[in-house]
Amino acid sequence: MSSIAHDPTHGHEHDHHAHHPSGVMRWITTTNHKDIGSLYLWFSFIMFLAGGVMALTIRAELFQPGLQIVQPEFFNQLTTMHGLVMVFGAIMPAFVGFANWQIPLMIGAPDMAFARMNNWSFWLLPVAAILLMGSFLAPGGASAAGWTLYAPLSVQMGMGMDMLIFAVHIMGASSIMGAINIVTTILNMRAPGMTLMKMPLFCWTWLITAYLLIAVMPVLAGAVTMLLTDRHFGTSFFNAAGGGDPVLYQHVFWFFGHPEVYIMILPAFGIVSQIIPTFSRKPLFGYASMVYATSSIAILSFIVWAHHMFTTGMPAAGQLFFMYATMLIAVPTGVKVFNWVATMWKGSMTFETPMLFAVGFIFVFTMGGFTGLICAITPIDIQIQDTYYVVAHFHYVLVAGSLFAIFAGTYYWLPKWTGHMYDEGLGRLHFWASIIFFNITFFPMHFLGLAGMPRRIPDYALQFADFNAIATVGAFGFGLSQLIFLAAVLKCVKGGQRRPQRSGTVRTDSSGPCPRQRPTIPSKLHRLSSKRCWLTGGPPWTGDQTSAPR
Amino acid sequence: MTGNRKMLIKLTVVAIGMFGFGFALVPFYDKICEVSGINNLLRADAVTNTQVDLARSVTIEFDANTHAMPWRFRPLESSIAVHPGQLTTVTYEVMNTLDRPVSGQAIPSYGPRNAAQYFRKLECFCFSKQTLAAGERRRMPVTFVVDSALPSDVGTITLSYTFFEVEGAVDRAAGSAVAQGGRS
Q1: Domain count of chain A?
Q2: Each residue of A409-429: b (16+ CB within 10 Å) or e?
Q3: Of A135, A250, A267, A345, which is least packed with CB atoms within 10 Å of its CB?
Q4: What is the spatial distance between Cα A533 and Cα A1, in angstroms, rounded to a whole number?
Q5: Any B CB within 8 A of A312 CB
Q6: CATH number of the domain located at residue range(s) B58-183 in this protein
Q7: CA distance A271 to A202
Q8: Residue ranges of domains in chain B
Q9: How far B104 CA lies from chain A's nearest CA (Å)?
Q10: What is the interface pTM, i.e. ipTM, of the complex?
Q11: pLDDT at A550
C-alpha cells in the first residue's frame, strides 16, 4: 500500500517526467499529500456552506415567533443535518486537510505514510456527503432525531435515517484511515534528529487527536450499527419492550461524543500554538506543558461523557463523579490559555489576519470554556439542559474555537500553499465581520437559554422574540461574511503579490510554494538549513519562530 | 516500510477492538445497572420496611397505554388510597383484539419521577413478556408496597404502564398477512 509513495526512484521519475494525469483525473487519482490536503479543505468549505445554508434557514424561521418559512418536521431535519454536516463534513475534514498539508512538511517526511489509503480516505467523504444530503429526498425526509440520533426516536425514523447511518459508517471509516495514516506518519517518518519533543505543536495535537479518533470512531460505528439492527433486524439494544434501554444509547453515543469534541478542538489548539509565537516573535511559552496538557485533556475526555446526561436519572454519586471529572478538564485547558497569553507577554506583537483570528480564538473560546464549566455543574445543568444556553456554549467553542482556528491556519499557511500573499485587507475585513457578527448571533442565546427557551424548536413564546431577532440578524451577517473568506482565498490562489522574502533568515531559498514532490528523507536535521521549506510548515513572512525548542 | 505496515496492523487491530468495545458496553451497562440496582424493570423489588404508616394515606392512580398495539388494556380501578407500607394488589385487564397471537411487554413509569424508588412491586405482569392468543382476555395482578420513607410532599403517585409489541416473539408465519392489515 505504501511502497509506491516511498520508492524514491519511482516517485521522482513520476514527478520529473510529468507522467501524472492532468485535469480531473489528477485529483481523483492523486496520492500527493498536498493535493489531498487541498481536496479536504475545499470539501470542508463546500460542506461548511451547505451547513451554513441550513443554519440560516433555521435562523430565518426563528426570526419571529410562529411558523413562517418551514414546517416543524423539516425544521427538525435541518437542525439534525446542520449539526452532522458541520461536525463530520466541515470541521473534521478541514483539520485533516491541515494535517495532510502541514504534517509531512513539518516533520520532514516525503509524503503521508500510506499515500493510496490517503486518497481513499478522502474520496470516501464525497460519497458519504451525497448519501447524507440525499437523505433529504428520501421518503419522510432526512433524519430529524437531532445530531445525537438518540434512541428511541432514531429507531422510529424513515429511510433517511438508514442513509444517515451508512453515511456515518463511511465517514467513520474515512476518519479512522486518516487517523492511522497520521499516527504512522508522525511516529515512523520524522526526519532524523526530530525527536517527538522537537515536533511543532501542531503535530503533537494531531498525533493525540488521531489516537482519539482511532479509539472512539469505532464506538460511534458500533452505536449506529446497533441502531440499524434495532431498526431492521429485530434486536432490542435500545428498545425497552425487548429488554433494551434507550439510556444505553446515550452512554455509548457520548462515550464517542465527548472525545469527539476534543477531536474538533485539539488541532485548533495546535494551529493557534503555531501562530501565536510567530506574531509575538517569541518561542512558545511552556512547550512541554502544552504537550502534557493536550495529553491530559485527551485522557480525561474518556471519563466525562455522562455530563451530557445529568437529567437521565443517574445516581447522585455518578453525577458528582462526572461533574468533578469535567471540571478537572478546565485545569489543562487553563494551562494552555495561560501559555498562549504568556507567549504574547512582552512579545513584539503584530496583528495580521492569522494573529487576529488566533487572538480572537483565545478570547471567544475562553468564554465558551467558561460557559462549559457552568454547564458542568450538575444542578445548573439540570436547569439549562436542552436550552439555548447549551446552544450558545457549544457554538462558542466550535465556531469561535475550531472554525476561527481553521480560518487562522488558512490565512497563515495560504502563502506557503499558493506562493502568493493573501489580501490583507480582505482578511482583516473577514475577521472583524466574523467576530462581531458571531457575537451578535450567539451572545443573546445565553440570555434565551437562561430564560428557558428550549433548543430544537421551530416556534417559541413571545418573550423570546427580541433576542431571536437579534441572533438572526447576526447569523445572516456571519454567513455573508464567509463569502469574504471565499473571495480572499480565490484571490490568493489565482495570484497576487509574491509572498514576502525575508533577508538574513534561513528561509531565503524558499520564496515559492513548496514543490509538488520533494526529495525523500533528508539525512540529518541540522543539515537542512538550506531546505527549511520542507521542514517547517512555518510562517512565510517572519523569521524562524518555530514552536519547538532547539 | 515494514515499520509502517506493522503500525497499520496494530492501529487497525485497536480500531476493530474499539468497535467491539462499543458492543461490550451493552453487557457492561446491564451489569452496572444490576449491581447498583438502577433500572431493574424486570425484577421484583425487595421490601425492607414493612412498617405500615396508618397516619398517612397516599393516592395511587393507575394508567394504561398501548404503543401501536392491537390490545385493549385498562386497570379495573382507576385510583385507590393506600397507607405507606400496606401490601396492596390491583388488577389490570388486557385483551388481544386480533385473530392471531401477539406478544407484548409492559413498561412501567411513575409520576412524580422521584416517587419511583419508593414504589416497590412484588409481583407484576411487567416482569415478563405476555403472550395473548387470538382474542384472549387476561386479568393480571400487580402487588405493591409504597415505602413509608416516601417524602411527605408526595400525596399522589401515578403508576403508568405502556405495552409494547415484542416483534418476532410469536410465530408469525401464518398470520403475517393479517399483521400487515391489522397494524396499518
Answers
A1: 1
A2: bbbbbbbbbbbbbbbeebbbb
A3: A345
A4: 27
A5: no
A6: 2.60.370.10
A7: 6
A8: 1-39, 58-183
A9: 7
A10: 0.83
A11: 34
Answer whether B164 sits within 8 Å of A239, measured CB to CB. yes
Query: What are the start-end ranges of the H helices in chain B?
Result: 2-36, 176-183
- Flag whether residue B23 sits within 8 Å of chain A, measured between CB atoms: yes
For residue A354, is it within any domain? yes
Q: How far apart (Å, rounded) are the C-alpha atoms in residues A503 and A541?
A: 10
CA distance B60 to B44: 19
How far apart CA A270 and CA A201 sit, in angstroms, is 5
> Would you please indicate which residues of A are annotated as catalytic (active-site) residues?
82, 111, 147, 174-175, 258, 260, 262, 273, 307-308, 333, 336, 455
pLDDT per residue as tens digits for the range A196-250: 999 999 999 999 999 999 999 999 999 999 999 999 998 889 987 677 889 999 9
Lowest-confidence range among A117-121, A357-361, A537-541?
Answer: A537-541
Task: Tell how many helices (H) and how many strands (E) occur in chain A.
Answer: 22, 0
Q: Tell whether B104 is within 8 A of chain A (Cβ).
A: yes
In a domain, A358, yes or no: yes
The total of other beta-carbon atoms located within 10 Å of residue A487's CB is 14
B156 in Cβ contact with B123 (< 8 Å): no
Are residues A79 and A70 in contact, defined by beta-carbon separation less than 8 angstroms? Answer: no
Rounded Cα–Cα distance for residues A32 and A26 (Å)? 10
Task: Give the pLDDT of residue B38.
Answer: 74
Q: How much is the average pLDDT of A541-548? A: 40
Specify the range with the lowest mean pLDDT, choosing from A47-51, A153-157, A440-444. Answer: A153-157
Q: The domain containing residue A132 runs over which residues?
A: 3-7+31-535
Gyration radius of chain B's alpha carbons: 23
- CA torsion A420-A424-A427-A432 (nearest 10°) is 170
Q: CB-based contacts of A1: which residues, under 8 Å, 6+ apart?
A: A114, A116, A117, B5, B8
CATH code of residue A285: 1.20.210.10
Single-letter code of the amino acid located at B67? H
Neighbours of B141 (CB within 10 A): 12
How far is Cα A510 from Cα A466, in angstroms, rounded to an integer? 54
Probe site for chain B from A118, A188, A312 (most B CB atoms < 10 A): A188
Query: Does any domain span residue A80?
Result: yes
